Amino acid sequence: MRDGPTSASAIVSAVAERTRTPEDELPPLYESIDVDAIQALLAHAADRPGAAPSVTFPYAGCTVTVDPDGTVRVEVPGENEATDTNE
After folding, report:
1. Of the four listed, 9, 23, 58, 74, which is most buried by Cβ atoms within 10 Å?
2. Which helix (H) or strand (E) covers residue 74, if one does?
């Protein structure tokens, strides 16, 4: 996947930070979701005013949401707050 606000590295970094797990110990992101498809969907939405989809998927035991502005929200089971990162 190309670098950008929804790059694979941004998603993996956000999950690693939130779970306090080294990035190289997390499973490959492509096993959970097609990251190129996320980027394509959000890029398409950015070209259309008023379209603002978010994409939510499970990864490494967390629920990850990627917003059109590049914000990656990570929810960890059993914790009350999600952490937002805006790349």
Report:
1. 74
2. strand 71-75
The CA radius of gyration of the chain, in Å to the nearest whole number, is 12
**Amino acid letter at 39?**
Q
pLDDT digits (tens, 9 = 90+) for 7-31: 889 999 999 999 999 999 999 999 9
Q: Give the pLDDT confidence of 54-78 residue by residue, as tens digits.
A: 889 999 999 999 887 788 999 999 8
Any idea which residue has 């190289």 for tokens? Answer: 24
pLDDT for residue 86: 59
Q: Global pTM? A: 0.77
Phi, psi of 71, deg, nearest 5: -70, 135
Asked whether the beta carbons of 18 and 62 are under 8 A apart, the reply is yes
Q: What is the DSSP string of 14-66?
A: HHHHHHT--GGGSPPGGGT--HHHHHHHHHHHHTSTT----EEEEETTEEEEE
